[in-house]
Design goal:
491 residues; alpha/beta; Aldehyde Dehydrogenase, Chain A, domain 1; Aldehyde Dehydrogenase, Chain A, domain 2; 2 domains; six-stranded mixed beta sheet; 15 helices; 21% strand; binds NADPH dihydro-nicotinamide-adenine-dinucleotide phosphate
């Protein structure tokens, strides 16, 4: 059985195990589809536990030699990989746009560039790494890192290569070998990463890629007794299954999960200068960024002015063909996901909300879009109770709800009134007020007067049901290594 390429002239997506591209053991396949057109892009290996077993055995075998390389050698590899990916930036952007339906301009600016900078950043972390030492009681302590061993990396569809490389780079830097599984909806760029490593003659077995469905491949990775750590990014309900499987095995576990983030405009927020940022925070990647602000809390004194300006800007967003350079919002990830988002829009109406702009694809159709394209206009709801399901459950689409508050205390109560705690932003002319406010929001990240401003050295992760643990900078290095404290006293 040979896998077929799809209509876009793409290669079939195989597994990459022990330095070889292979079909799944069962020979089964699935299709990855362009969500903007409904057309198949490529046939993909549909794997199961047997493929995970082969990948894990390859990773375990490679572990001995890879963990014995020096940090300097691994840093050099990360730079080499960054250079090779950078040379393919345009291909990465195109594949990501085809696979996800996101605008090509966004895929270039965010996905392609960050996939390269993840490798460069962790290379520089390796260059600067110094082991902390402590001395007391006539003894010196120092911290020695060893790799976890073989780690499982499981990633979602919204930022496919960006999020995969965010895990692959620190895992390699710390001397681990990898079994990775991308979302079955967006396997193209993980395959491109495997092709790139293959071209570079990267040591075989160090990076292994197994494609397929979550319950068939992801679950087998999480369950595998020889995989010592799991770094998972995805939805909270899947994260709960991952935790239930991995925690009793005492695996190292990092969970980056869902969010329902608040964008909070205090009464002194300078509306004119921040409006473009508020729109960006709401609808980047069709709202399919875990950090997007999907609940906008506005002080009642500026509500009318905010609504007028915000609605005007949102209705003017150019939604359409992701390959058109002028497009600002493409499709959502799939027709199934569009159905889910539309069900929330219908629910929002049932819960008493008013749609200020947008609506379902029937209520607010887009002319000239393919019938099988998963397009939606950006949708803004007003008048929904802050406790409504629409305002508290993660929709992960182009839908925001706007609410008013009368005092800072009320805004904080509203911001914290969800099960999630991933990110949030506060907008104010008074920086001191911003500091105070930020410290009271139950969240892994709070931005003041900015959004998605990422310094890769900072801790990244959520509280409550948004996750467990932190990645980023030294927190990634800590996750992907075991720390031994060595205490030495002169004889
Ligand atoms: P899912 O939770 O559905 O899937 C995430 C990954 O887990 C996919 O590769 C999926 O495979 C896999 N998976 C599914 N079931 C299992 C299982 N039983 N065991 C192991 N792995 C499994 O998330 P989505 O792909 O739908 O991504 C969207 C979600 O990701 C949103 O909730 C979003 O908030 C969150 N996210 C969080 C981020 C953060 O940093 N906190 C960043 C980006 C997104 P398959 O696709 O084949 O089912």
């Amino acid at each position: 059985m040979a896998l077929r390429s799809g209509g876009a002239g793409l290669n079939p997506v195989l597994n990459y195990i022990d330095g070889q591209f292979v079909e799944s053991h069962s020979g089964k396949t699935l299709l990855t589809v362009n969500p903007a057109t409904g057309e198949p892009l490529a046939e993909v290996a549909r794997s199961n536990g047997e493929d995970v077993e082969a990948a894990t055995q390859a990773a375990l075998t490679a572990s001995a030699s890879w963990s014995a390389t020096t940090l300097e050698q691994r840093v050099k590899w990360l730079h080499t990989i960054a250079d090779a990916l950078e040379a393919k930036s345009e291909t990465i952007a195109r594949l990501e746009s085809l696979d996800t339906g996101k605008p090509i301009s966004l895929a270039r600016r965010v996905d392609a560039s960050r996939s390269v900078s993840n490798f460069r950043f962790f290379a520089s972390m390796g260059e600067d790494d110094t082991s902390p030492t402590f001395s007391d009681h006539g003894a010196i302590n120092y911290v020695h890192r060893t790799p976890v061993g073989c780690v499982g990396l499981i990633t979602p569809w919204n930022l496919p290569l960006y999020l995969l490389t965010w895990k692959v780079a620190p895992a390699l830097l710390m001397g681990n070998t990898i079994v990775a599984k991308p979302s079955e909806l967006t396997p193209l760029t993980a395959h491109l990463l495997a092709e790139t490593l293959h071209e570079l003659e990267f040591p075989k077995g160090v990076f292994n890629l197994v494609n397929g469905y979550g319950p068939e491949v992801g679950q087998a990775i999480v369950e595998h007794p020889s995989i010592g750590g799991i770094s998972f990014t995805g939805g909270t309900s899947t994260g709960r299954i991952v935790a239930a499987t991995a925690a009793p095995m005492f695996k190292k576990l990092s969970l980056e999960l869902g969010g329902k983030n608040a964008t909070i405009l205090l009464d002194d927020a300078p509306l004119d200068s921040i409006m473009d940022e508020i729109v960006r925070a709401s609808f980047t990647n069709s709202g399919q960024v875990c950090l997007c602000g999907s609940r906008i809390l506005v002080h009642e004194s500026i509500y009318e002015a905010f609504i007028d300006a915000f609605t005007a800007k949102v209705s003017a967003l150019k939604v359409g063909d992701p390959m058109n350079e002028a497009t600002q919002m493409g499709s959502v990830i799939s027709m199934d996901h569009r159905d889910k988002v539309e069900a929330y829009i219908t629910l929002g109406l049932e819960e008493g909300g008013n749609i200020l702009t947008g609506g379902t694809s029937t209520q607010a159709p887009l002319a000239d879009m393919p019938e099988q394209g998963a397009f939606l206009r950006p949708t803004v709801f007003a008048n929904l109770p802050i406790s409504s399901r629409t305002a508290t459950e993660e929709i992960f689409g182009p839908v925001v709800t706007v609410h008013t508050f009368a005092s800072d205390e009320e805004a904080i109560t509203m911001a914290n009134a969800t099960d999630y705690g991933l990110a949030g932003s506060v907008w104010t002319a008074d920086i001191q007020r911003g500091h105070t406010f930020a410290r009271n929001v139950e969240s892994g990240i709070v931005w003041v007067n900015t959004w998605l401003n990422r310094d890769l050295r900072t801790p990244f992760g959520g509280v409550k049901q948004s996750g467990v643990g932190r990645e980023g900078g030294r927190w990634s290095m800590d996750f992907f290594s075991e720390l031994t404290n060595i205490c030495i006293r002169q004889p």
